């Protein structure tokens, strides 16, 4: 029997098993189709960007490793991301950072960037049929050297960054308009202090004031939407982070905007999955940065870990899959970067699929009847259902490599493209 026939046969059997549990795999696959993952452009080149290819990454984040073949030009980044997308089932988007603009070999100050610097990407996105998301970049710049940007004590520094973020929101709206798909603009700032400070309140007041000034410039909600991303600490910024969870949770609720929850931005025993049903009581739409912290916010490639599974289960159980924006945020410079993309996106997609394949109606019934042994048993049995057969079938119907077949494709790409850089 051919491989295709085997995949189909395995799927048909799996479909029956799931149906016995009250799960309709066909409608699950339809949901997979409309659930887009926004791929972060910065795995392609270790968060360097095209403003200053020799510049150092600052802001308390770090990509470790020196695997050969990273993208050094926009063309290379586009080629790599297109390659990765060709190996992924379903729909993706691309998430750009402001430093990835096409500055046409000139220097453009961050507070002077505009939509024209992203035409190259918009054209590429049109060609790929994908939407774009956007991020202002408030790190890797001399005006961030004090450790503070929007919350700096110097009003001139704050003003510079306020202007930058305002420009970035224009760019996001422009992308939304050009591509007919709303762009999510995420605001993350590195601000904080290595050691104890007596000015926690003052910096947070500055940040609030700067954000108020930024958001005073109204944008069309159908073209772009803002999110704010909280964080616990950064490298060299261990004692104090201005934009903490409480700060942004409060800000997002007060200003009716999106909150971005990054899996790596909390205390190690804290679970982002548990925040989903809490935050959704107050905020109608969320952005997630799916990543894998190991001991710290190390931004490892996403795998099908318990926490990633739990995150999507909570989203599905809260019935909010259509109210989440799924971004990825890992940057591993120690392995083939296209391989990192494909492995990470596929892992996140598998977690979504698994969450959708849960026998949720039966689980809820047990739960609400107080049948807790039954609930636990079913949760356990659900783990060994033939989900791999559904995943393989999904990949096959989307005409992308099934199983490990993408490994050889990436090895080939490394040989013909990456090794020549
Ligand atoms: C940093 C944040 C942020 C960045 C990107 C590059 O800790 O997670 O999202 O990773 O903006
Ligand atoms: Zn993040």
Structure description:
With 421 residues, the protein is an alpha/beta fold. It folds into two domains: 1-23 and 357-421; 32-356, Divalent-metal-dependent TIM barrel enzymes (TIM Barrel, Alpha-Beta Barrel). It contains 14 helices and twelve strands. The protein has helices spanning 3-20, 25-34, 74-86, 119-128, 155-179, 200-215, 245-255, 273-279, 306-317, 337-357, 360-368, 372-382, 387-397, 405-416; strands at 37-40, 92-97, 132-135, 183-187, 192-193, 224-229, 240-241, 258-262, 286-290, 292-294, 296-300, 324-328. Strands 1-2-3-4-6-8-9-12 form an eight-stranded parallel barrel. A two-stranded antiparallel sheet has the order 5-7. A two-stranded antiparallel ribbon has the order 10-11. Helix 8 (273-279) links the parallel strand 8 and strand 9 (286-290). Helix 2 (25-34) packs across helix 10 (337-357) and helix 8 runs parallel beside helix 9. The radius of gyration is 22 Å and the shape is globular. Bound molecules: L-rhamnitol and zinc ion (ZN). L-rhamnitol binds at residues 42, 47, 61, 135, 188, 229, 231, 262, 289, 297, 329.
């Amino acid at each position: 029997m051919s491989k295709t026939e085997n995949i189909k046969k395995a799927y048909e059997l799996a479909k029956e098993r799931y149906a016995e549990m009250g799960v309709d795999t066909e409608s699950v696959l339809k949901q997979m189709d409309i659930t887009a993952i926004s791929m972060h452009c910065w795995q392609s080149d270790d968060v360097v960007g095209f403003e200053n290819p020799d510049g150092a990454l600052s802001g308390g984040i770090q990509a470790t490793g020196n695997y050969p073949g990273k993208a050094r030009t926009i063309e290379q980044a586009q080629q790599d991301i297109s390659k990765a997308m060709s190996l992924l089932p379903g729909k993706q988007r691309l998430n750009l950072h402001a430093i990835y603009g096409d500055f046409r070999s000139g220097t453009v100050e961050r507070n002077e960037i505009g939509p024209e610097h992203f035409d190259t990407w918009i054209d590429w996105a049109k060609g790929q049929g994908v939407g774009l998301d956007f991020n202002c970049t408030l790190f890797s710049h001399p005006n961030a050297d004090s450790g503070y940007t929007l919350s700096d004590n110097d009003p001139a520094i704050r003003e510079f960054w306020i202007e930058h973020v305002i420009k970035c929101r224009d760019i996001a709206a422009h992308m939304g308009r050009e591509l007919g798909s709303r762009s999510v603009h995420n605001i993350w700032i590195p601000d904080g202090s290595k050691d104890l400070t007596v000015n926690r309140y003052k910096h947070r007041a500055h940040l609030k004031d700067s954000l108020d000034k930024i958001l005073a410039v109204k944008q069309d909600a159908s073209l772009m939407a803002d999110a704010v991303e909280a964080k616990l600490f950064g490298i060299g910024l261990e004692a104090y982070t201005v934009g903490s969870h409480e700060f942004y949770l409060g800000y997002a609720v007060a200003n009716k905007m999106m909150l971005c929850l990054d899996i790596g931005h909390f205390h190690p025993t804290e679970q982002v999955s548990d925040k989903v049903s809490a935050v959704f009581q107050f905020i109608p739409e969320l952005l997630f940065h799916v990543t894998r912290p190991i001991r710290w916010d190390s931004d490892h490639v996403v795998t099908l870990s318990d926490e990633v599974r739990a995150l999507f289960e909570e989203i599905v159980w809260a019935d909010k899959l259509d109210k989440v924006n799924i971004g990825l945020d890992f940057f591993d410079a120690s392995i083939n970067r296209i391989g990192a993309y494909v492995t990470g996106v596929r892992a996140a997609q598998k977690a979504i699929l698994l969450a959708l394949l849960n026998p949720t109606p039966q689980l809820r019934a047990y739960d609400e009847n107080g049948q807790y042994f039954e609930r636990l048993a079913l949760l356990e049995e659900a783990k060994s259902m033939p989900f791999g057969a559904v995943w393989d079938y999904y990949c096959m119907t989307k005409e992308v490599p099934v199983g490990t077949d993408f490994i050889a494709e990436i090895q080939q790409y490394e040989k013909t493209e990456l090794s020549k850089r």
